[in-house]
Write a structure and sequence with these properties.
alpha+beta, two-stranded antiparallel ribbon
Amino acid sequence: MMTIKDLRDILIHFTDRKYDDYEVILWDYNHQQDCDWGGGYSLSHPDKRLVFPITVNDVNEETITDRIKKVMDDLKNK
């Protein structure tokens, strides 16, 4: 979980105008790919949640851990 304070602590390093054109990538670790952000967000005050909806494309529904295990098993069996 990331809080607004966590996000502020990260973004404090990027307040200079030279960072204005930097891209923010939401990364799907399991599939080793970036996620598509629709550009929107929602705020729920009762739940104290700020939500950025993203789309994660399936990669054969296999996580990075599954893929690494498969490679390791293949190497072991050779």
